């Protein structure tokens, strides 16, 4: 990263930090963009170049945590075993969130109090799921040799050559990963002194893999094609229905 990029990143961090100080002291609704800009010693136009809305100021830290993990996964060799890759994605998100517990709790509080923050957070979570789904599709759709090197047997896990089946499976995997993150973070926020996020995440993953968590019964196989692009369904406007999204 060059000097210009470092300066931009420092400015971005400073603006976000000052915004959270003001949100904590005065509330989200009572804090203006002009007040945040003055506290960070930048002009409002500069602030808007970094953060187009107040909501994006709230979510800057969470967005960095999520997108960093997806970016890391994209950069891994295609031969990485997908279960190991997903575990690393989950733990990478949680480790970064755990590094700033006050910011995470503030995000939860603001999302619970402010509908616009909750809506923007839900959109961010869906973007993470969609990006993770896309990367899983890329890996699941690779040539047979690549899949074999990654320890992936599509027949064993019930994935046929149909692209819709591949995307359906990828979307389910991404959804499970996000749900593990959501559950662990909620428990951690509510019980900060009694929870180690990595231990709890690994317990969740172990229970899922061992069948220790009740799952819906499959019932008899029904005819008909799989839906297309389940992670991008327009039925819910592309939003998560969770009140916090995390």
Automatic annotation (TrEMBL):
Pfam families: TetR_N. Residues 9-69 form the HTH tetR-type domain. It comes from the Bacteria. Gene3D superfamilies: Tetracycline Repressor, domain 2 (1.10.357.10). GO terms for molecular function: DNA-binding transcription factor activity; transcription cis-regulatory region binding. Keywords: DNA-binding, Transcription, Transcription regulation. PROSITE patterns: HTH_TETR_2. Residues 214-246 are annotated as: Disordered. Residues 32-51 bind DNA. Signal peptide: none annotated. SUPFAM superfamilies: Homeodomain-like. This is TetR/AcrR family transcriptional regulator. It comes from Kribbella capetownensis. The lineage of its organism: Bacteria, Bacillati, Actinomycetota, Actinomycetes, Propionibacteriales.
